[in-house]
Amino acid sequence: MEIKKQNEIEEKVVDMEGAKNVRMQILTKGAGNFIMRRFIVGKDGYTPLHKHEWEHEAFILKGKGIVVDEGKEIEVEQGTVIYVEPNKEHQFINKSEEPFEFICVIPSQDKSCPR
Amino acid sequence: MEIKKQNEIEEKVVDMEGAKNVRMQILTKGAGNFIMRRFIVGKDGYTPLHKHEWEHEAFILKGKGIVVDEGKEIEVEQGTVIYVEPNKEHQFINKSEEPFEFICVIPSQDKSCPR
What we know:
By secondary structure, chain A is mainly β. The first copy, chain A, has no helices and ten strands. Chain A has a single domain, classed as Jelly Rolls (Sandwich). In chain A, about 0% of the residues lie in helices and about 55% in strands. In chain A, the strands form two sheets. In chain A, strands 2-3-4-10-5-8 form a six-stranded antiparallel beta sheet, with no helix packed on it. Chain A has a three-stranded antiparallel beta sheet with strand order 7-6-9, with no helix packed on it. The radius of gyration of chain A is 13 Å and the shape is globular.
């Protein structure tokens, strides 16, 4: 078993084109089937508006944010679950003053997202 | 995209042998590669002490609990990440007064766990 506290795990700045004020942690790569990541989107930050061939399963841990679903802005908050299908354009935006944090699980085959 | 609030998702009682005072939600089955679940372990509750051939990736959402790792009791709390390897005996226990909640992601091939 591997047990870690989230504040002991290295944070990386997400420097993808189209990203602003986003940090990310690899929480666990597990057995190599899927990767659990934590994102921290700061004030006025956003992830890239993008799509890719693999799905996302996300859970909002903290704060409030916007998810862009094919051009539509949807408000989400702590406790919201989001499933992004493969090849669907999406983006996470923080328009609030507080950090917006979420877990995002991807299959290990997805090489297009931070990992 | 599918967007749901956790309190709108059906909760099921985990009635496996060896479980006490545990409820579970399927947050999303995504694209069929892995399943994101949320567990709520009530006061004096516990999941079964068991093992199976598939891994778990877990993240503690709320409260404090105990993870049993091969007979050793380890305290965990909000923000702890736990990776349980395939075929490793494990159990989640709540010895506190407050609910102990965690996300647990499993591969879809795992038919031995609530899903």
